[in-house]
Automatic annotation (TrEMBL):
Protein name in the entry: Alkaline/neutral invertase
EC class of the enzyme, as a word: hydrolase
Organism: Platanthera zijinensis
Function text: Invertase that cleaves sucrose into glucose and fructose.
InterPro entries reported in the protein's UniProt record: 6-hairpin_glycosidase_sf, 6hp_glycosidase-like_sf, Glyco_hydro_100
Keywords: Carbohydrate metabolism, Glycosidase, Hydrolase
Catalyzed reactions per annotation: Hydrolysis of terminal non-reducing beta-D-fructofuranoside residues in beta-D-fructofuranosides
EC number: 3.2.1.26
C-alpha cells in the first residue's frame, strides 16, 4: 500500500500489520517506522535520579516531511508551529492532511483562560461529599493514565481480580472516557480533558489496517494504550500512544461512535471552560471536518440515518443492531448539532454547514416520524396494508404487522412511548434501547412531547428498566432461538446479561441528563438512590444480570471506571443542573420548517413530509 496519502509520509510502505506484539517487537517497529508513533522519551522510574526529563520528541522525519511539502505547508508550519496537523485544500474542496507536527500540549499547561478560571472558582465543591463519592473520586483518580507525565485519559477498568485477563480493559476507551471527562469538567478540572481531546485527535486516521485494508480517514479509535518501549540506552524508555481502530478488538468492528463522542465532548469542554480557542484551532477544525466527511459521504443508502455494521457503538458485539441503530442516530444528530456550533464559518466551510443543516432536518424528520411508537402508532402498524407500491404509501417500509412481538402487545403502557431500536426495509426492531432514547432527549432529536413520553414510559416500566440497578441497556432480552441466531450463540450475551438485557450503571448519567433537560430531576434522584445502595458495596461493577438487575454480571469487571464516573457525573449534574446545558441542545424550529431536500420545488421527485401525519412539530 502506498502511504503517501493522508499523512503525507513520502515513503512506500509495505503492508504494515501491527507489530506491537511485545516491547521488543515494538522497539523494532519504532526504529523501522519512527513516523508511525507519537513518542516521548521518559526516564525509567529506577533511573529517575539520573536527572533531566526530556521534552517530547518530534519524530525527525515527520518534521522534515512537513518542510519539504511545498509552499502552503511551509507557510502554515511557519505561521503556527503548535498545530499538530497542517493541511491544505484538496481538489474536491476537502481538506487533505499532509503532515503532523508534535503539538505543544502537555509540557506547560500555562494559565487557564480567564473564563476557565472564573468557572473553576465558581465550581468549587459546595456540598459535603458522601463516603461513596469520596471513594468514587479516589478510584477515578487512580484510573488516570499519564502520557509523558501528563494525564490523558482513564483506563476502562482497574479490576485486581481479573488475574491477567485484562483483555483491553487496561486501555483508554473514547466512549468510556466521556463520563470521566464530565466528572472532571464539572469539578473544574479541565487539563485532562484538553489533553485527551488533542492526543486522540493526533491518533485520528492513524494508518492501521486489517489484513492490508485501512479504515476511512477521519475514523477515531475505539481505544488507545500508552505503551512503554525500551530504548537502546538502558536508562531510558519511550512512551508511545498505540490506538486500536477495531483491528485488534473482538470482532474487528470499527467504532462509529468514537468520533461522535469526541465532537460532543469538545463542545462540552469549550462551554464549561470558556477555552473556545481550542475548538478554533486549525487542527481541531480539521478533525471535526474529517469526522463529518466520513459521516456525510454519499453511499447507496436511501435514508438520512447512518448505516453501520453490528457492534459499532457501546454494544460492540453482535446483537442484531446493524443497519440504522438508534444509538448511532442519536449520537450522530447530537454531533451534527455540536459541530454546527463549532465550525468556523467562512467560504471554505459554507458547503459543509449547508450539508449539516440538510442532514439535521432530514434526520430529525425521519426519526420522529418512523422510529416513534406509542399505543396509537402500534395500533396503526397492526392494521397496516402491505405491498404498497407508491410514493405515498402509509406503510413505507413494508412492515408486516405479524412482526409486532407479543411481549410488546402486553407490555406497552397506555401513556408514553419510545423510539424503537432500528428501522429498515421490512424490519422494525421494537426493542427499547436506553442510550439511544436518552440521548435523543438530550440532543432534541425527539419532540418535547416525545421526550416527555419516553420518561413517562421509563417511570411506568420502572421495574423492567431500572429494577435493582439503573439502567437496562435494552429491553427485552433475546432468548432461545432468537439468542442463538441473532447473537450467534454468544455466551457473554446470554439472556438478561451484558448487552442482551443486562443493566449498566454507567447509563445513570445519561438518564440524569435527560431528566434534568425535561425538568424532572426527581426521577433521576430516585434512580441514583437505587444505584447508591449497591455500587460501592458491589465494588463498582461494569454491569448486572437478570431481569431486574439483581446479580453482579457473570463476567462483569469490578472497579469499572465509567460506572464510577457515571455515578459522580450524575451527582454533580443534580447538584448543578444548570451545567447540563454543556451537553444538551434545544429544539431548533427552523430545522423542522425547512424541507431541506428541496423536493417541493422539483416536479420529478416527491417529498412525503408534507403528506405525512407528522409528529414533527408536536
Ligand atoms: C465493553 C463494552 C464497551 C466498552 C468496553 C470498555 O466492550 O461493550 O461499550 O467501551 O467494554 O469498557
Amino acid at each position: 500500500m502506498n502511504a503517501t496519502s493522508s499523512m503525507g509520509i513520502a515513503t512506500v510502505r509495505p503492508c504494515f500489520r501491527l507489530l506491537l506484539g511485545g516491547s521488543g517487537k515494538a522497539a523494532g517497529a519504532l526504529s523501522k517506522y519512527p513516523f508511525l508513533f507519537s513518542k516521548c522519551s521518559r526516564i525509567r522510574p529506577m533511573a529517575s535520579s539520573a536527572g533531566v526529563r526530556r521534552r517530547s520528541v518530534v519524530p525527525a522525519r515527520a518534521v522534515a516531511g512537513a518542510r519539504s511539502m511545498g509552499t502552503s505547508a511551509e507557510s502554515a508550519v511557519g505561521r503556527e508551529k503548535a498545530f499538530d496537523r497542517i493541511y491544505k485544500e484538496g481538489l474536491a474542496g476537502k481538506p487533505i492532511v499532509i503532515d503532523r507536527v508534535e503539538p505543544e500540549i502537555h509540557q506547560q499547561p500555562g494559565p487557564p483562560p480567564a473564563a476557565e478560571k472564573e468557572e473553576q472558582e465558581e465550581l468549587a465543591p459546595p456540598t459535603k461529599e458522601t463516603e461513596e463519592e469520596k471513594e468514587a473520586w479516589r478510584l477515578l483518580r487512580k484510573s488516570v493514565v499519564n502520557y509523558c507525565g501528563s494525564p490523558v485519559g482513564t483506563v476502562a477498568a482497574d479490576d485486581p481480580m481479573t488475574g491477567g485477563q485484562m483483555l483491553n480493559y487496561d486501555q483508554v476507551f473514547i466512549r468510556d472516557f466521556v463520563p470521566s471527562a464530565l466528572a472532571f469538567l464539572l469539578k473544574g478540572e479541565t487539563e485532562i480533558v484538553k489533553n485527551f481531546l488533542l492526543y486522540t485527535l493526533q491518533l485520528q486516521s492513524w494508518e492501521k489496517t486489517v489484513d492490508c485494508y485501512s479504515p476511512g480517514q477521519g475514523l477515531m479509535p475505539a481505544s488507545f494504550k500508552v505503551r512503554t518501549i525500551p530504548s537502546s540506552d538502558e536508562n531510558e524508555a519511550y512512551e508511545v500512544l498505540d490506538p486500536d481502530f477495531g483491528e485488534s478488538a473482538i470482532g474487528r468492528v470499527a467504532p462509529v461512535d468514537s468520533g461522535l463522542w469526541w465532537i460532543i465532548l469538545l463542545r462540552a469542554y469549550g462551554k464549561i471552560s470558556g477555552d473556545y480557542a481550542l475548538q478554533e484551532r486549525v487542527d481541531v477544525q480539521t478533525g471535526i471536518r474529517l469526522i463529518l466527511n466520513l459521516c456525510l459521504t454519499d453511499g447507496f443508502d436511501m435514508f438520512p440515518t447512518l448505516l453501520v455494521t453490528d457492534g459499532s457503538c457501546m454494544i460492540d458485539r453482535r446483537m442484531g443492531i446493524h443497519g440504522h441503530p438508534l444509538e448511532i442516530q442519536s449520537l450522530f444528530y447530537s454531533a451534527l448539532r455540536c459541530s454546527r456550533e463549532m465550525i468556523t464559518s467562512n467560504e471554505g466551510s459554507k458547503n459543509l454547514i449547508v450539508a449539516i443543516n440538510n442532514r439535521l432536518s432530514a434526520l430529525s424528520f425521519h426519526i420522529r416520524e418512523y422510529y416513534w411508537v406509542d399505543m396509537k402508532k402500534i395500533n396503526e402498524i397492526y392494521r397496516y396494508k402491505t405491498e404498497e407500491y407508491s410514493s405515498d404509501a402509509a406503510n413505507k417500509f413494508n412492515i408486516y404487522p405479524e412482526q409486532i412481538p407479543s411481549w410488546l402487545v402486553n407490555w406497552f403502557p397506555d401513556r408514553g412511548g419510545y423510539l424503537i431500536g432500528n428501522v429498515q426495509p421490512a424490519h422494525m426492531d421494537f426493542r427499547f434501547f436506553s442510550l439511544g432514547n436518552l440521548w435523543a432527549i438530550a440532543s432534541s432529536l425527539t419532540t418535547p412531547w416525545q421526550a416527555e413520553g419516553i420518561l413517562n414510559l421509563i417511570d411506568d416500566k420502572w421495574d423492567d428498566l431500572v429494577g435493582n440497578m439503573p439502567l437496562k441497556i435494552c429491553y427485552p432480552a433475546f432468548e432461545f432461538d432468537e439468542w442463538r441466531i441473532i447473537t450467534g450463540s454468544d455466551p457473554k450475551n446470554t439472556p438478561w446479561s451484558y448487552h442482551n438485557g443486562g443493566s449498566w450503571p454507567t447509563l445513570l448519567w445519561q438518564f440524569t441528563l435527560a431528566c434534568i433537560k425535561m425538568g424532572r430531576p426527581e426521577l433521576a434522584r430516585k434512580a441514583v438512590a437505587v444505584a447508591e445502595k449497591r455500587l460501592s458495596k458491589d465494588k463498582w461493577p461494569e454491569y448486572y444480570d437478570t431481569r431486574t438487575g439483581r446479580f453482579i454480571g457473570k463476567q462483569s469487571r469490578l472497579f469499572q471506571t465509567w460506572t464510577i464516573a457515571g455515578y459522580l457525573t450524575s451527582k454533580l449534574l443534580l447538584e448543578k443542573p444548570e451545567l447540563a446545558s454543556i451537553l444538551t441542545c434545544e429544539e431548533d424550529l427552523e430545522l423542522l420548517e425547512g424541507c431541506s431536500c428541496s423536493l417541493k420545488k422539483s416536479a420529478r421527485t416527491k417529498c412525503s413530509r408534507p403528506s405525512s401525519k407528522s409528529q414533527v412539530l408536536i
